[in-house]
User: What shape does this take?
Amino acid sequence: MSIIREDDVIASVADALQYISYYHTPDFIQAMGRAYAVERSPAARDAIAQILTNSRMCAEGHRPICQDTGIVVVFVKVGMAVRWDAKRDLEAMINEGVRRAYLNPENKLRPSIVADPAFSRLNTRDNTPAVIHVELVAGESVEITVAAKGGGSENKSVFAMLNPADSVADWVLDQVPKMGSGWCPPGMLGIGIGGSAEKALLLAKKSLMQPIDMQELLARGPQSKLEELRLTIYARVNALGIGAQGLGGLTTVLDVKVLDYPTHAVSLPVAVIPNCAATRHIDFTLDGRGPARLEPPNLDLWPKVQWAPDASARRVSLDGLTKAEIATWKAGERILLSGKLLTGRDAAHKRICALLDAGKPLPDGLDFHGRMIYYVGPVDPVGSEVVGPAGPTTANRMDRFTETMLGKAGLIAMVGKAERGPEAVKIIHKHGAAYLIAVGGAAYLVSRAIRTSRVVAFAEMGMEAVYEFEVRDMPVTVAVSAAGESVHDTGPIAWRGKFAGIPIAVE
Assistant: This one.
C-alpha cells in the first residue's frame, strides 16, 4: 500500500508548473518544426520561426514561453488503495504547489487569477486557486496531469447542443473562423462530444492533454470513426487558410483531438477548446517513493531554426512618428520598431477613457499624442532583465476604447495580437492610424528588444499599469493599415484551399 506524502504532492506540482513554463513538449516542437518546413506563406513562416526560436531560448534560459503563464488546470486520478500522510486536503496541497511555483524568485510567473470574477476582480497575487478535477480509480498510486492554460485560447472555447442529426465536423468548421486568431495558432483543437453540457467541455479539455500524433495517424490511416473525424476536421480547418497568427498560411492546427461519451438520445453536446502556441502540460505519478522526477527534454529535438529579422523589414523610429509615415505602411508589411513605446491593457484603458470622457486630465506625465501603445502585461523581471517575457495580449478587448484613444487621447498606432473587430478597423481607418501585431507565443524573444522600462501611470495596478518601454528592432507586422486593409481578412483568403497536397512527412 502506497503512502502519499503532502510534501511530495506540493513539491511535484510546483516543479511541474515551473517545468512547463519554459519547456514545450517534444511532440509539440516536432509538429511545429514540420509546420515550419512545409509553410509557404512568408508571414506565417516568420511567425513560426519566432515561436520556435522563442521556445529554445526559454528552454535554455528557464524563462516563461508566454507572459500569460495561465490558469492552472489539474487532473488527478487517486488510486483507492493509497493512504495519505497529510494535514492538508488534496485541493489545499495542489494550491500550495501552485503558490510556490508562481512565487518562485528564480523564475517569476505572472499571477493572472482574479477572485470575485463578476465584480471586484481582485488579483489573488499567487495564481491560486487551480481548477482541479479528481477521479477515484483502482490502484496504489496518484496520477496527476498539470496544465497551464492561457486566457487568449481559453476565451475562444465554444459549446453547443446540436441536434442528433447535425454534422459535428460542419459545426466545428463554422466555429473556427469565428474564433479569430486570438488563440495564437498554430495549435490544437480539443473536441468533446456527448455526455451532458459540462461533460462535453471537460472531455474537450482532457483531450488537449494527449500527445500530438496527427502525422502518425495520417501515415497509418484511421482505425475508428473518431479517427476519421479527426482527419476530416484537421484537413478542413487547415484548408481555411487562417495560418499562423491568422496571417494566412498552410497550418492552422497541428492536431485535432476528440473524446466522446454516451449521451441522451435527443442530445448531441459538442465543445471545442483550442490550445495555443504556448501548449503547456505534463503528467507524473506519485507512488510513495518521493516527489516526481521531471527530466529535461533533449534540446537536440528542437529544429535548427534561428529567427532573424527579414532583410526587407522596414525600420521605424517611434520618436517623432507621424501619420504621414504611417500612411505609407502596407498591410502584411514587416516592421522593426525602435524608440519609446507606451503600454496598457484593459484596466488601464478603462481608467484612461473614463477620465477623457469626463473631460478630466490624465495623470501627470501620461500623454498619448503622437504615440504608439503596446497591449501587454509582462512577467516581472529577474536578475539583470529590464522586463520579463512580454508578448502581446489579444487586441480586440481594447476595441471598445479605440475611438476615445485615437480621437481624444491622440494615439496614432497600436500593437497587440490577433484581429480587430470590423468597427475598430473602421475607426482606425477614420483616424489614419494603424494596428500592428507581435507574435503571440514569442514573449521571451520580444522582451529581448526592450532596453528600458519605467512605470508612467497607475503603478498600483501591477501588470496593468502603463509603462514606457524603449525598444530596439522590435518585430511586428502591419495588421490594419491606415487605408483600412486588414491582413486578417486578406491573408486567409489568399491561402484558402492551398493546404491540400502538402507532404505528410518531412525529413
About this structure: The mean pLDDT is 96. The longest helix spans residues 42-61. The chain has three domains: 1-150, 151-277, 314-487. The CA atoms of residues 356 and 408 lie 7 Å apart.
